[in-house]
Write a structure and sequence with these properties.
The complex is a heterodimer of chains A (175) and B (214).
Chain A (H helix, E strand, L loop, with lengths): L4 H12 L3 H20 L4 H17 L11 H28 L9 H14 L4 H12 L4 H8 L3 H21 L1
Chain B lengths: L4 H10 L9 H23 L3 H4 L5 H23 L11 H22 L1 H8 L4 H11 L1 H13 L5 H21 L7 H22 L1 H4 L2
Helix pairs in contact in B: 2-4, 2-8, 2-9, 4-5, 4-9, 5-6, 5-10, 7-9, 7-10, 8-9, 9-10
Classes of the chains: A mainly alpha (175), B mainly alpha (214).
Chain lengths: 175, 214
Protein backbone atom coordinates (compact mmCIF):
# COMPACT_ATOMS: atom_id res chain seq x y z
CA UNK A 1 0.00 0.00 0.00
CA UNK A 2 1.39 3.40 -0.96
CA UNK A 3 -0.28 6.32 0.81
CA UNK A 4 0.35 9.92 -0.08
CA UNK A 5 2.02 12.06 2.57
CA UNK A 6 -1.16 13.89 3.58
CA UNK A 7 -2.96 10.59 4.18
CA UNK A 8 -0.02 9.16 6.10
CA UNK A 9 0.16 12.32 8.22
CA UNK A 10 -3.56 12.09 9.01
CA UNK A 11 -3.30 8.37 9.83
CA UNK A 12 -0.35 8.97 12.18
CA UNK A 13 -2.27 11.69 14.01
CA UNK A 14 -5.21 9.30 14.44
CA UNK A 15 -2.89 6.51 15.59
CA UNK A 16 -1.47 8.80 18.27
CA UNK A 17 -4.99 9.14 19.63
CA UNK A 18 -5.37 5.33 19.77
CA UNK A 19 -7.22 4.58 16.49
CA UNK A 20 -6.12 1.00 15.73
CA UNK A 21 -7.53 0.85 12.21
CA UNK A 22 -5.65 4.02 11.26
CA UNK A 23 -2.54 2.65 12.95
CA UNK A 24 -2.62 -0.59 10.94
CA UNK A 25 -2.95 1.41 7.71
CA UNK A 26 -0.21 3.80 8.81
CA UNK A 27 2.21 0.95 9.63
CA UNK A 28 1.54 -0.76 6.29
CA UNK A 29 2.12 2.47 4.39
CA UNK A 30 5.23 3.21 6.46
CA UNK A 31 6.54 -0.27 5.73
CA UNK A 32 6.24 0.36 1.97
CA UNK A 33 8.05 3.68 2.33
CA UNK A 34 10.79 2.12 4.47
CA UNK A 35 11.35 -0.73 2.00
CA UNK A 36 12.05 1.86 -0.69
CA UNK A 37 14.18 3.93 1.66
CA UNK A 38 16.46 1.05 2.72
CA UNK A 39 16.63 -0.60 -0.70
CA UNK A 40 19.26 1.93 -1.81
CA UNK A 41 21.27 1.66 1.40
CA UNK A 42 21.73 -1.93 2.53
CA UNK A 43 22.13 -5.40 0.98
CA UNK A 44 18.76 -7.03 0.16
CA UNK A 45 18.97 -9.68 2.91
CA UNK A 46 19.17 -6.97 5.61
CA UNK A 47 16.27 -4.81 4.43
CA UNK A 48 13.44 -6.68 6.15
CA UNK A 49 15.22 -6.74 9.54
CA UNK A 50 15.94 -3.04 9.29
CA UNK A 51 12.36 -2.21 8.27
CA UNK A 52 10.99 -4.20 11.22
CA UNK A 53 13.44 -2.57 13.65
CA UNK A 54 12.32 0.81 12.37
CA UNK A 55 8.64 -0.07 12.72
CA UNK A 56 9.30 -1.12 16.33
CA UNK A 57 10.98 2.24 16.95
CA UNK A 58 8.04 4.03 15.33
CA UNK A 59 5.78 2.15 17.74
CA UNK A 60 7.86 2.92 20.84
CA UNK A 61 8.38 6.56 19.88
CA UNK A 62 4.93 7.40 18.52
CA UNK A 63 4.65 10.26 21.03
CA UNK A 64 7.64 11.96 19.38
CA UNK A 65 5.60 12.72 16.24
CA UNK A 66 4.32 16.28 16.08
CA UNK A 67 0.80 16.04 14.60
CA UNK A 68 1.05 19.59 13.26
CA UNK A 69 3.93 18.67 10.94
CA UNK A 70 4.31 16.36 7.92
CA UNK A 71 5.04 12.77 8.85
CA UNK A 72 7.71 11.82 6.31
CA UNK A 73 10.57 13.91 7.83
CA UNK A 74 9.77 12.22 11.19
CA UNK A 75 9.69 8.74 9.68
CA UNK A 76 12.89 9.46 7.74
CA UNK A 77 14.64 10.64 10.92
CA UNK A 78 13.73 7.42 12.73
CA UNK A 79 14.79 5.34 9.72
CA UNK A 80 18.10 7.19 9.49
CA UNK A 81 18.74 6.66 13.20
CA UNK A 82 18.12 2.91 12.86
CA UNK A 83 20.28 2.81 9.73
CA UNK A 84 23.21 4.50 11.52
CA UNK A 85 22.75 2.12 14.45
CA UNK A 86 22.69 -0.81 12.04
CA UNK A 87 25.94 0.35 10.40
CA UNK A 88 27.56 0.69 13.80
CA UNK A 89 26.62 -2.90 14.65
CA UNK A 90 27.79 -4.08 11.25
CA UNK A 91 31.14 -2.34 11.72
CA UNK A 92 31.60 -3.83 15.20
CA UNK A 93 30.61 -7.25 13.90
CA UNK A 94 33.11 -7.04 11.05
CA UNK A 95 35.88 -5.90 13.39
CA UNK A 96 35.07 -8.68 15.89
CA UNK A 97 35.11 -11.23 13.10
CA UNK A 98 38.61 -10.12 12.12
CA UNK A 99 39.73 -10.14 15.78
CA UNK A 100 38.46 -13.69 16.18
CA UNK A 101 40.36 -14.83 13.13
CA UNK A 102 37.20 -15.79 11.28
CA UNK A 103 37.48 -15.90 7.52
CA UNK A 104 34.68 -13.51 6.70
CA UNK A 105 34.95 -14.10 2.98
CA UNK A 106 33.90 -17.72 3.19
CA UNK A 107 32.45 -18.64 6.58
CA UNK A 108 30.38 -15.82 7.86
CA UNK A 109 27.54 -14.54 5.75
CA UNK A 110 26.48 -11.66 8.05
CA UNK A 111 30.06 -10.46 8.21
CA UNK A 112 30.22 -10.58 4.42
CA UNK A 113 27.10 -8.41 4.25
CA UNK A 114 28.74 -6.12 6.76
CA UNK A 115 31.71 -5.75 4.47
CA UNK A 116 29.39 -5.03 1.55
CA UNK A 117 27.85 -2.12 3.49
CA UNK A 118 31.28 -0.84 4.45
CA UNK A 119 32.55 -1.21 0.90
CA UNK A 120 29.68 0.93 -0.34
CA UNK A 121 30.74 3.65 2.07
CA UNK A 122 34.43 3.21 1.24
CA UNK A 123 33.66 3.94 -2.41
CA UNK A 124 33.10 7.56 -1.40
CA UNK A 125 36.53 7.91 0.23
CA UNK A 126 39.83 8.81 -1.44
CA UNK A 127 42.02 5.73 -1.93
CA UNK A 128 44.67 6.67 0.65
CA UNK A 129 42.08 7.23 3.41
CA UNK A 130 40.27 4.02 2.53
CA UNK A 131 43.54 2.06 2.58
CA UNK A 132 44.58 3.50 5.97
CA UNK A 133 41.23 2.69 7.62
CA UNK A 134 41.11 -0.76 6.05
CA UNK A 135 44.60 -1.74 7.24
CA UNK A 136 44.55 -0.25 10.74
CA UNK A 137 40.91 -0.26 11.82
CA UNK A 138 39.72 -3.43 10.12
CA UNK A 139 42.75 -5.63 9.54
CA UNK A 140 44.31 -4.59 12.84
CA UNK A 141 47.77 -3.58 11.59
CA UNK A 142 49.80 -1.14 13.66
CA UNK A 143 50.40 2.37 12.33
CA UNK A 144 54.03 1.41 11.57
CA UNK A 145 52.99 -1.75 9.71
CA UNK A 146 50.39 0.14 7.70
CA UNK A 147 52.98 2.78 6.89
CA UNK A 148 55.46 0.18 5.66
CA UNK A 149 52.77 -1.59 3.66
CA UNK A 150 51.44 1.51 1.88
CA UNK A 151 54.45 3.77 1.65
CA UNK A 152 52.54 6.53 3.46
CA UNK A 153 54.37 8.11 6.40
CA UNK A 154 53.10 7.19 9.89
CA UNK A 155 51.71 10.67 10.47
CA UNK A 156 49.98 10.56 7.09
CA UNK A 157 48.38 7.23 8.03
CA UNK A 158 47.02 8.83 11.23
CA UNK A 159 45.77 11.89 9.35
CA UNK A 160 44.11 9.73 6.69
CA UNK A 161 42.38 7.58 9.31
CA UNK A 162 41.13 10.68 11.12
CA UNK A 163 39.91 12.38 7.93
CA UNK A 164 38.43 9.19 6.53
CA UNK A 165 36.45 8.36 9.67
CA UNK A 166 35.21 11.94 9.86
CA UNK A 167 34.09 11.75 6.25
CA UNK A 168 32.39 8.38 6.81
CA UNK A 169 30.52 9.80 9.80
CA UNK A 170 29.33 12.72 7.67
CA UNK A 171 28.24 10.34 4.90
CA UNK A 172 26.24 8.26 7.36
CA UNK A 173 24.62 11.36 8.87
CA UNK A 174 23.56 12.55 5.40
CA UNK A 175 22.28 9.13 4.32
CA UNK B 1 15.29 -13.75 12.11
CA UNK B 2 12.41 -11.38 11.21
CA UNK B 3 8.77 -12.03 11.97
CA UNK B 4 6.31 -12.05 9.11
CA UNK B 5 5.55 -8.37 8.41
CA UNK B 6 1.79 -8.84 8.91
CA UNK B 7 2.39 -10.61 12.24
CA UNK B 8 4.56 -7.76 13.46
CA UNK B 9 2.09 -5.08 12.35
CA UNK B 10 -0.80 -6.98 13.99
CA UNK B 11 1.18 -7.25 17.24
CA UNK B 12 2.02 -3.53 17.20
CA UNK B 13 -1.58 -2.58 16.48
CA UNK B 14 -2.73 -4.80 19.33
CA UNK B 15 -0.25 -3.07 21.65
CA UNK B 16 -1.29 0.48 20.63
CA UNK B 17 -2.01 2.93 23.43
CA UNK B 18 -2.83 6.62 22.94
CA UNK B 19 0.44 8.57 22.94
CA UNK B 20 0.25 12.22 24.00
CA UNK B 21 2.47 14.26 21.66
CA UNK B 22 5.58 15.83 23.19
CA UNK B 23 4.63 19.47 22.77
CA UNK B 24 7.49 21.96 22.90
CA UNK B 25 5.59 24.29 25.24
CA UNK B 26 5.07 21.54 27.81
CA UNK B 27 8.74 20.56 27.69
CA UNK B 28 9.74 24.19 28.17
CA UNK B 29 7.36 24.50 31.11
CA UNK B 30 9.11 21.55 32.82
CA UNK B 31 12.53 23.04 32.05
CA UNK B 32 11.55 26.46 33.46
CA UNK B 33 10.05 24.83 36.57
CA UNK B 34 13.26 22.85 37.14
CA UNK B 35 15.36 26.00 36.65
CA UNK B 36 13.21 27.94 39.13
CA UNK B 37 13.32 25.05 41.61
CA UNK B 38 17.14 25.04 41.42
CA UNK B 39 17.23 28.82 41.98
CA UNK B 40 14.75 28.54 44.86
CA UNK B 41 16.88 25.82 46.50
CA UNK B 42 20.08 27.87 46.27
CA UNK B 43 18.53 31.10 47.53
CA UNK B 44 16.42 29.24 50.10
CA UNK B 45 19.45 27.52 51.63
CA UNK B 46 22.19 30.11 51.13
CA UNK B 47 20.20 33.34 50.75
CA UNK B 48 20.20 35.92 47.96
CA UNK B 49 22.85 38.52 47.22
CA UNK B 50 21.96 41.61 49.29
CA UNK B 51 21.88 43.93 46.26
CA UNK B 52 19.58 41.53 44.37
CA UNK B 53 17.36 41.12 47.43
CA UNK B 54 17.16 44.91 47.80
CA UNK B 55 16.17 45.30 44.15
CA UNK B 56 19.25 47.41 43.37
CA UNK B 57 21.63 44.92 41.71
CA UNK B 58 25.19 45.68 40.62
CA UNK B 59 25.45 45.95 36.84
CA UNK B 60 27.83 43.13 35.89
CA UNK B 61 26.34 40.35 38.08
CA UNK B 62 22.82 41.04 36.84
CA UNK B 63 23.93 41.18 33.20
CA UNK B 64 25.90 37.94 33.59
CA UNK B 65 22.99 36.22 35.35
CA UNK B 66 20.71 37.35 32.52
CA UNK B 67 23.08 36.02 29.87
CA UNK B 68 23.29 32.62 31.59
CA UNK B 69 19.50 32.57 31.96
CA UNK B 70 19.04 33.20 28.22
CA UNK B 71 21.63 30.51 27.42
CA UNK B 72 19.84 28.06 29.72
CA UNK B 73 16.49 28.73 28.02
CA UNK B 74 17.78 28.67 24.44
CA UNK B 75 19.78 25.46 24.86
CA UNK B 76 16.93 23.83 26.81
CA UNK B 77 14.59 24.77 23.97
CA UNK B 78 16.94 23.18 21.42
CA UNK B 79 17.27 20.04 23.58
CA UNK B 80 13.51 19.73 24.03
CA UNK B 81 12.96 20.12 20.28
CA UNK B 82 15.32 17.18 19.71
CA UNK B 83 12.76 14.89 21.35
CA UNK B 84 10.76 15.21 18.11
CA UNK B 85 13.06 14.13 15.28
CA UNK B 86 12.63 15.39 11.73
CA UNK B 87 15.05 15.23 8.83
CA UNK B 88 15.95 18.73 7.71
CA UNK B 89 15.07 20.47 10.99
CA UNK B 90 17.74 22.99 12.06
CA UNK B 91 18.13 23.78 15.75
CA UNK B 92 21.36 25.73 15.91
CA UNK B 93 20.05 29.07 17.19
CA UNK B 94 21.32 28.24 20.68
CA UNK B 95 24.87 28.42 19.32
CA UNK B 96 24.60 32.19 18.90
CA UNK B 97 23.51 32.52 22.53
CA UNK B 98 26.46 30.33 23.57
CA UNK B 99 28.77 32.58 21.55
CA UNK B 100 27.32 35.61 23.31
CA UNK B 101 27.88 33.97 26.72
CA UNK B 102 31.44 33.07 25.70
CA UNK B 103 32.24 36.79 25.77
CA UNK B 104 32.26 36.55 29.59
CA UNK B 105 35.09 33.98 29.98
CA UNK B 106 36.94 35.45 26.98
CA UNK B 107 36.77 38.93 28.51
CA UNK B 108 37.80 37.57 31.91
CA UNK B 109 40.83 35.81 30.44
CA UNK B 110 41.78 38.93 28.48
CA UNK B 111 41.67 41.08 31.62
CA UNK B 112 43.52 38.47 33.68
CA UNK B 113 46.30 38.17 31.11
CA UNK B 114 46.56 41.97 30.87
CA UNK B 115 47.10 42.15 34.62
CA UNK B 116 49.93 39.63 34.40
CA UNK B 117 50.58 36.89 36.93
CA UNK B 118 48.66 38.60 39.72
CA UNK B 119 45.60 38.87 37.50
CA UNK B 120 45.76 35.17 36.61
CA UNK B 121 46.22 34.16 40.24
CA UNK B 122 43.25 36.31 41.25
CA UNK B 123 41.05 35.02 38.40
CA UNK B 124 41.79 31.38 39.19
CA UNK B 125 41.59 31.78 42.98
CA UNK B 126 40.35 28.48 44.40
CA UNK B 127 37.42 30.24 46.08
CA UNK B 128 35.77 29.98 42.65
CA UNK B 129 35.66 26.22 43.04
CA UNK B 130 32.75 26.70 45.43
CA UNK B 131 30.73 28.42 42.68
CA UNK B 132 31.67 25.64 40.26
CA UNK B 133 30.53 22.96 42.71
CA UNK B 134 27.37 24.84 43.69
CA UNK B 135 26.46 25.56 40.08
CA UNK B 136 26.98 21.91 39.15
CA UNK B 137 24.83 20.75 42.08
CA UNK B 138 22.10 23.27 41.21
CA UNK B 139 22.10 22.00 37.62
CA UNK B 140 20.97 18.50 38.60
CA UNK B 141 17.23 19.29 38.60
CA UNK B 142 17.37 20.89 35.15
CA UNK B 143 19.44 18.00 33.80
CA UNK B 144 16.98 15.47 35.22
CA UNK B 145 13.96 17.25 33.69
CA UNK B 146 15.59 17.40 30.25
CA UNK B 147 16.84 13.80 30.37
CA UNK B 148 13.38 12.50 31.32
CA UNK B 149 11.84 14.51 28.48
CA UNK B 150 14.36 13.33 25.91
CA UNK B 151 14.04 9.70 26.96
CA UNK B 152 10.32 9.93 26.20
CA UNK B 153 11.21 11.29 22.77
CA UNK B 154 13.57 10.18 20.03
CA UNK B 155 16.66 12.40 19.79
CA UNK B 156 18.29 11.51 16.48
CA UNK B 157 21.78 12.47 17.74
CA UNK B 158 22.28 11.44 21.39
CA UNK B 159 25.76 13.09 21.59
CA UNK B 160 24.34 16.43 20.45
CA UNK B 161 21.33 16.04 22.75
CA UNK B 162 23.69 15.24 25.64
CA UNK B 163 25.75 18.35 24.90
CA UNK B 164 22.61 20.51 24.85
CA UNK B 165 21.35 19.04 28.12
CA UNK B 166 24.76 19.69 29.72
CA UNK B 167 24.95 23.29 28.52
CA UNK B 168 21.32 24.00 29.47
CA UNK B 169 21.65 22.43 32.92
CA UNK B 170 25.04 24.04 33.57
CA UNK B 171 23.67 27.46 32.59
CA UNK B 172 20.58 26.95 34.77
CA UNK B 173 22.84 25.95 37.67
CA UNK B 174 25.10 28.95 37.24
CA UNK B 175 22.08 31.25 36.99
CA UNK B 176 20.92 29.91 40.37
CA UNK B 177 24.44 30.37 41.77
CA UNK B 178 24.57 33.94 40.43
CA UNK B 179 21.62 34.85 42.66
CA UNK B 180 23.75 34.03 45.71
CA UNK B 181 27.40 34.57 44.62
CA UNK B 182 28.93 37.64 46.27
CA UNK B 183 31.61 38.31 43.62
CA UNK B 184 31.18 41.33 41.35
CA UNK B 185 34.30 41.07 39.19
CA UNK B 186 34.48 39.84 35.62
CA UNK B 187 37.47 37.53 36.29
CA UNK B 188 35.49 35.45 38.80
CA UNK B 189 32.18 35.52 36.91
CA UNK B 190 33.73 34.91 33.50
CA UNK B 191 36.08 32.12 34.53
CA UNK B 192 34.27 30.19 37.26
CA UNK B 193 30.68 30.71 36.18
CA UNK B 194 31.67 30.16 32.55
CA UNK B 195 33.58 27.04 33.55
CA UNK B 196 30.43 25.60 35.13
CA UNK B 197 28.68 25.73 31.75
CA UNK B 198 31.71 24.25 29.98
CA UNK B 199 31.98 21.41 32.52
CA UNK B 200 28.25 20.77 32.14
CA UNK B 201 28.58 20.62 28.35
CA UNK B 202 31.53 18.23 28.49
CA UNK B 203 29.80 16.01 31.07
CA UNK B 204 26.60 15.96 29.01
CA UNK B 205 28.45 15.21 25.78
CA UNK B 206 30.44 12.34 27.30
CA UNK B 207 28.10 10.79 29.87
CA UNK B 208 24.60 11.22 28.49
CA UNK B 209 24.59 9.68 24.97
CA UNK B 210 24.21 6.15 26.36
CA UNK B 211 21.29 7.31 28.48
CA UNK B 212 19.61 9.04 25.53
CA UNK B 213 20.13 6.31 22.92
CA UNK B 214 16.99 4.39 21.93
Amino acid sequence: MIADEATLTRLTGLAQRGDRQAYAAMLSASRSWLLRYFRRKVPPDQIEDLVQDTLLSVHRKLASYDPERPVIPWLAAIARYRFVDHLRQVYRHAAAAVDDGINIATDDEPALSARLSLDRLFEALPGAQCQAIELVKIEGLSIAEASASTGQSESLIKVNIHRGLKRLAALIERA
Amino acid sequence: MSDHPDTLIAALVDDLRPAAPLYQSRGMAYAVLALLAGAALVTGILGMRPDFAAGRPAALPVIAAGIFLVLALSSASAAIAMARPAVGARRDGWGWTALMAAVLPAGALFLAVQDGMSGLVQAFAPAGLYCLALGSAASVLSAAALIIWLRRGAPSSPPRAGLLVGVAAGSAGVFATSLWCQHDGLPHIGIWHGLTVIVGGIAGRTLLPRLLAW
